[in-house]
Design brief:
The protein has a domain at 6-35 and 99-209: P-loop containing nucleotide triphosphate hydrolases (Rossmann fold), CATH 3.40.50.300. It has helices at 18-27, 35-45, 47-57, 74-81, 85-112, 144-153, 159-167, 172-178, 189-209; strands at residues 6-11, 31-34, 62-64, 70-72, 117-121, 136-141, 181-184. The strands form two sheets. Strands 2-5-1-6-7 form a five-stranded parallel sheet, sandwiched between helices. A two-stranded antiparallel ribbon has the order 3-4. The model has no long low-confidence stretch (mean pLDDT 95). With 210 residues, it is an alpha/beta fold.
Length: 210
């Protein structure tokens, strides 16, 4: 195994633009681990997690598509967990250990491949304890109206549904308190690109000192 990469967490609330920042970091040469994507994959492939999902939501939460592939009724899951904080916590406890293990494998792979910076993108990084072991965390923030507008444009629900989902997450002020870097995404795409390049340069400087 080669040298461990610099591990950078990137998080932010719904509609903040964290995924856009991560795509920009990927274009700058960073490897990106998407915790939410890993969780979705585990919900369709890990037998223990599938069994746990059925215990939480009932057998009908899964179905077979036209090709015979297993699918999860994610809309129903989202509607239920964002209306029930206890259910949301139980879902997170079920899935997060598998996500942490997948990230550990991603770190090993990145080290073997000589990757300098590995980004961990996660919507609930701090809430899940996913910041442990990271070298730094960047938080992407934006005003509530912009976040709601972006989420609605992606078809993520009505304004009321999106606001309810945002309210289940940590407030931005709490995220900022724990951040090493903060990216304000209230401006243009060009401004976000400039802020992301600055973040990348700051991380490279830290990396050169390690």
């Amino acid at each position: 195994m080669g040298k461990k990469p610099f591990l950078l967490g990137v998080t932010g609330g719904l509609g903040s633009g964290k995924s856009t920042v991560c795509r920009m970091l990927a274009c700058l040469g960073c490897a990106v681990f998407e915790a939410d994507s890993a969780a979705r994959e585990l919900q369709l492939s890990d037998p223990e997690i599938i069994a746990g999902m059925k215990r939480l939501f009932g057998d009908s939460i899964y179905f077979l598509d036209s090709t015979g592939a297993l699918q999860l009724d994610r809309k129903t899951v989202a509607n239920r967990v964002f209306a029930d904080s206890v259910l949301l916590e139980r879902l997170n406890r079920l899935v997060h250990p598998g996500v942490f293990a997948a990230f550990g494998r991603a770190v090993s792979d990145a080290a073997s491949e000589g990757v300098g910076i590995l980004v961990k993108e996660a919507a609930i990084l701090f809430e899940s304890g996913g910041e442990k072991g990271l070298d730094a965390v960047a938080v992407v923030i934006a005003d509530m109206d912009k976040r709601v507008e972006r989420a609605m444009a992606k078809g993520m629900g009505s304004k009321a549904e999106i606001v309810k989902r945002i309210e289940t997450q940590w407030p931005q002020e709490k995220l900022v308190e724990k951040a090493d870097f903060v990216i304000d995404n209230n401006g243009s795409v060009l401004e976000l690109e400039a802020a992301t390049r600055k973040l990348h340069q700051d991380v490279l400087r830290r990396l050169s000192r390690s």
